[in-house]
TrEMBL record:
Subcellular location: Cell membrane
Keywords noted in UniProt: Cell membrane, Membrane, Transmembrane, Transmembrane helix, Transport
Keyword Transport listed: yes
Topology term for the membrane: Multi-pass membrane protein
Record's GO cellular component terms: plasma membrane
Keyword Cell membrane attached: yes
Pfam families noted in UniProt: BPD_transp_1
Organism field: Actinoplanes derwentensis
GO biological process terms held by the UniProt record: transmembrane transport
Organism domain of life: Bacteria
Entry-linked InterPro entries: MetI-like (IPR000515), MetI-like_sf (IPR035906)
Protein name: Carbohydrate ABC transporter membrane protein 2, CUT1 family
Family the UniProt entry places it in: Belongs to the binding-protein-dependent transport system permease family.
Transmembrane residue ranges: 7-27, 70-95, 107-132, 138-160, 181-206, 239-260
Length: 274
């Protein structure tokens, strides 16, 4: 009986936590489906009656379209993800499986850069990018984060170190060098952690706001977060349009999580077993 009571209390708390977590998103979707007149006349918690998709139409084909910022954001995210995964995998393999002088010292110094806040490097980064003539350009947004990140290298290094050495020795006995070992042994076994890292990297750079805001000044290279922020500032009274914009910006991340959730759960399981 005590175990049943504990289970009931646990599920009640989990349900309450889910409601608190999901309520802002549901309220955002509900508000985006109203007209400005409905939002002004009704309670914010009242459901839309009738349902209106005018705000979404305005953001897709209207004067305040978010399609160009969406295209720029997708291009930035794809390029950064490819660059970070490639560089992080190579660096993590070197730190995990290669022996060279100063390896551990170099790794911990590199990992120590995680302690440096973004605000401390914002101005030097901007001066460097401006000096290269890349201010207000696509490469100015992408270049500072293209070549890996300390967190990604640390995560992959720890996973690579947990792969049994016997598998790597067997591949080397068959004549495989480091590139073949990485491609045919390490990477197939690392799909769950790579999927998790993919999600983390996409979410981080999809939601990146400060650096694109600082390095760009024209509407041509606005990413989605900057465009939504400008929309909110310009149309602060039209909350239905703002909520529709935030909902559209969140949908691709939800779809990505649904697609890769099996790999994420598997990576959590493997990490827990280790």
């Amino acid at each position: 009986m005590s175990r049943r009571i504990a289970n009931v209390v646990t599920y009640l708390l989990l349900t309450l936590g889910a409601i608190v977590t999901l309520a802002p998103y549901l309220l955002s979707i509900q508000t985006s489906l109203k007209t400005p007149e409905q939002f002004a006349a009704q309670s914010p918690l009242a459901p839309p009656s009738p349902v209106s998709g005018g705000s979404y139409a305005e953001l897709v084909v209207g004067d305040h379209t978010l399609v160009p910022p969406l295209v720029i954001t997708v291009q930035v995210v794809i390029l950064v993800v490819l660059g970070q995964l490639t560089c992080s995998v190579l660096a993590a393999y070197a730190f995990a499986r290669l022996d060279f002088p100063g390896r551990d010292l170099l790794f911990w110094v590199y990992l120590g850069t995680l302690m440096v806040p973004l605000a401390a490097t914002l101005v030097p980064r901007f001066v460097l990018v401006a000096g290269l003539g890349l201010r207000d350009t696509f490469w100015g947004i992408v270049l500072p984060t293209l070549f890996g990140s300390p967190y990604a290298v640390f995560l992959l290094r720890q996973f690579f170190r947990g792969i049994p050495t016997e598998l790597l020795d067997a591949a080397r006995i068959d004549g495989a060098g480091h590139p073949r070992v990485l491609r045919h042994v390490i990477l197939p076994l690392s799909r769950p952690i790579l999927a998790t890292l993919l999600i983390i990297t996409v979410v981080a750079h999809w939601n990146e706001f400060l650096w694109p805001l600082v390095v760009t000044s024209s509407e041509r290279w606005r990413v989605l977060t900057v465009a939504v922020s400008a929309l909110q500032s310009q149309y602060n009274g039209n909350w239905t349009l703002v909520m529709a914009a935030t909902t559209l910006a969140t949908c691709p991340l939800l779809i990505l999580f649904v697609v890769f959730q099996r790999h994420i759960v598997k990576s959590i399981t493997i990490t827990g077993m280790k």
